[in-house]
Automatic annotation (TrEMBL):
It comes from the Eukaryota. This is Nucleolar protein 10. One of its GO terms (biological process) is maturation of SSU-rRNA from tricistronic rRNA transcript (SSU-rRNA, 5.8S rRNA, LSU-rRNA). It comes from Tetraodon nigroviridis (Spotted green pufferfish). Its main location: nucleus. Residues 629-650 have a biased composition (Polar residues). Residues 371-419 form the Nucleolar protein 10-like second domain. It is found in: Nucleus, Nucleolus. Residues 531-590, 605-689 are annotated as: Disordered.
Length: 689
């Protein structure tokens, strides 16, 4: 059971709480009730008061002894006995049930039940399925006229079909001016028949002479000042109250109260949700109207339109039914569980559940905050955006906490004038959210920065490894990454901070940095493994110490640094050689001219070619070529060549120097031999006595 308070009216949700599975045994259910607090506070007013999937409609017999509910799947009808607080029977059908009704003559299940299913109407009695017949058009609603035993069907046709149950045949239909008819109802006092059309009109007929007695244009009357109309309002709900009152609900969310003696509505109540009205009921004890759409149930005064209270379930509403002469109501929802609400302000609890009056006193300890209907909460910033700051302090704004309450009609009107494209912005925002949700299901790719991508990738990999090692520890905490630090943000955005990997400084430092990073990761792995071993455990034999490992690591990176330096020198030499080649390509070679020395004659070109061969040949080749000719040949060959003469003189000097060094070396050997002889002990003098 759940307690809420709306406009100082307490509302008890009797169906709130967890549902126990049907396959559980009674023993398991008792165990769950002892352990779970929510299950303990759950009140199962009627046993199995639910449907397999969805409940579509719900009705209570006139005497209050039976509750009929329809739902899916599969299409079925269930009957509950209020005296036994349990399910009486369940019957499956061929198609979904749209409308269920009792025979109003007896108001007792034991007589007759009518079920309307698409193109068919079924009759059920206490013994089971009684009869089934087909109607000419698809139906949407029907009403039973008890004095003449006629069933009136309305649907996707301009005709209202009549089926006489006494004669067992269809009678002449009633021809309306509309294309389709949505709902119908019969006044319980003077039996006036009324049907609501898709054009927003209500046509009233007298069943005695089958003539139309009046037409009400509800579509035009539902449009008032400040009402936002998105289409032609059609009649979606219709209900008589007494002999002169009638309530009409439209597809745009307005409820119109009529006096049958006037063509103008007495009151127009807008629910501000723009949803079709699905159900209308009256509470004659307090002069209240209970109107419901798919989102909310509102209870308000039929004379003034003042809000009494409201109920907003967690699921969409399909139908609402009031239990006669009590404060209890049932709802059929888009949910397997059918809801039951009890409002003590509307009336006492029914006789079959009178214990609710005692339980309600225990649930007043945690009431919810008050909800103001027909008002919109806005802050000062919202007022500034709407241009309504000048209304602060006036009667149009009611101060509450950090903002104000303002009339919902005024808010919608001003919002439409201030931002006429609000719907388009809302639609774009919803589309963007859908796209973002679909993107989260894809593979997440880490985005690298535009600058220093290699460095960022390296930091990401190291961060993942450190996080993996830290997760294995009991109390490990990961250090913040450089990528997420604003102080280093410029390093990955400004191109001036791009690391030049080809520079000399980077190539010399990279072995050291990479080795330090490897050592750090190795140290982290060792620390993670050391936690699994006791601190007092000795180091196993044969395992190298950390100092030896560190020395080996130092030697390795020293070798890498030397290798980088050698490569840099080699690249520098290659670069210089390339520059010289490019410089030589740019120079123009000019012809060279030689002048013959004074006092000498030019003999022939053969001597010139011989001189060129001598220049190219080695020193031994030159001596071999010059041995037969002697000194004169050397002198002749030196004609016109200073280089050859200098080479020969240099070779003679070299020979003399080698000869002198060899003589000096032999003299040193002779002097060394007596010293070795003395050191061997042979020439050692004897000691004196």
């Amino acid at each position: 059971m759940q307690l809420s308070s709306v406009n100082d009216v307490k509302i008890y949700n009797l169906s709130h709480g967890k549902s126990l599975p049907e396959w559980l045994s009674d023993r398991k259910k008792r165990q769950l009730q002892k352990k779970d607090v929510d299950v303990q506070r759950r009140i199962e007013l009627i046993q199995d008061f639910e449907m397999p999937t969805v409940s579509t409609s719900i009705k209570v017999s006139g005497d209050g002894n039976f509750i009929l509910a329809t739902g899916t799947y599969k299409p079925r009808i269930r009957c509950y006995d209020t005296h036994q607080l349990s399910l009486k029977f369940e019957r499956c059908l061929d198609s979904d049930v749209k409308v269920v009704a009792f025979d109003t003559l007896s108001d007792d299940y034991s007589k007759l039940v009518f079920l309307h299913c698409d193109r068919y109407v079924e009759f059920h009695s206490q013994q089971g399925h009684y009869y089934k017949t087909r109607i000419p058009k698809f139906g949407r609603d029907f009403s039973y006229h008890s004095p003449s035993c006629d069933l009136y069907f309305v649907g996707t046709s301009s005709e209202v079909f009549r089926l006489n149950l006494e004669q067992g045949k269809f009678l002449n239909s009633l021809q309306t001016d509309s294309v389709e008819n949505n709902v119908c109802d019969i006044n319980p006092v003077h039996y006036l028949f009324a049907t609501g059309t898709s054009e927003g009109r209500v046509e009233c007929w007298d069943p005695r002479d089958r003539n139309r007695v009046g037409v009400l244009d509800c579509a035009l009357s539902s449009v008032s000042e400040g009402t936002q109309v998105q289409g032609l309002p059609s009649v979606s709900a219709l209900k008589f109250n007494g002999s002169l009152s009638m309530a009409v609900g439209t597809s745009t969310g307005q409820v119109l109260l009529y006096d049958l003696r006037s063509s103008q509505p007495l009151l127009v109540k807008d629910k501000f949700y723009n949803l079709p009205i699905k159900s209308l009921n009256f509470n004659n004890q307090l002069d209240l109207v209970v109107s419901a759409d798919s989102k909310i149930i509102k209870i308000w005064n039929k004379d003034t339109g003042k809000m009494f209270t409201s109920i907003q379930p967690q699921t969409n509403i399909n139908d609402v039914c009031l239990y006669p002469n009590s404060g209890m109501l049932f709802t059929a929802n888009e949910d397997p569980k059918m809801s039951t609400f009890y409002i003590p302000a509307l009336g006492p609890a029914p006789r079959w559940c009178s214990f609710l009056d005692n339980l309600t006193e225990e649930l007043e300890e945690s009431p919810e905050s008050t909800v103001y209907d027909d008002y919109k909460f806005v802050t000062r910033k919202d007022l500034e955006n709407l241009g309504l700051s000048h209304l602060v302090g006036s009667s149009l704004l009611r101060a509450y906490m950090h903002g104000f309450f303002m009339d919902i009609r005024l808010y919608h009107k001003v919002k439409g004038m201030a931002n006429p494209f609000a719907y388009e912005e809302y639609r774009k925002e919803k589309i963007r959210q859908k796209i973002d949700e679909s993107r989260t299901q894809r593979v997440n790719i880490q985005k690298l920065p535009k600058v220093n991508k290699e460095l960022a990738l390296k930091l990401m990999e190291e961060g993942d490894e450190e996080a993996g090692l830290a997760s294995r520890k009991k109390k490990g905490k990961t250090l913040p990454s450089i990528l997420g630090d604003d102080r280093f943000k410029v390093m990955f955005e400004n191109p001036e901070y791009q690391v030049d990997e080809q520079s000399e400084e980077f190539r010399l430092l990279n072995p050291i940095v990479s080795k330090v990073g490897k050592k750090r990761m190795k140290k982290l792995r060792l620390m993670a493994a050391a936690q699994q071993v006791a601190e007092d455990e000795e180091e196993p034999e044969g395992r190298a110490s950390s100092e030896e490992e560190s020395s080996d690591d130092d030697k390795s990176w020293v070798e890498e640094v030397r290798e980088q330096r050698r490569l840099l020198r080699q690249e520098d030499r290659d670069r210089r050689r390339q520059e010289r080649k490019e410089a030589d390509r740019g120079t123009v070679l000019l012809p060279q001219f030689y002048q013959i020395r004074a006092g000498e004659e030019f003999r022939s070109f053969k001597d010139v070619s011989r001189k060129q061969k001598l220049q190219k040949a080695s020193l031994e080749d030159r001596l071999r070529l010059e041995e037969p000719s002697g000194t004169s040949a050397t002198a002749d060959s030196a004609v016109g060549s200073k280089q050859l003469t200098f080479t020969l003189q240099k070779s003679e000097q070299h020979k003399k120097q080698q000869r002198a060094e060899q003589e000096h070396h032999e003299e040193r050997k002779k002097l060394r031999r007596p010293a070795e002889h003395l050191s061997s002990g042979r020439g050692r003098p004897r000691p004196l006595l």
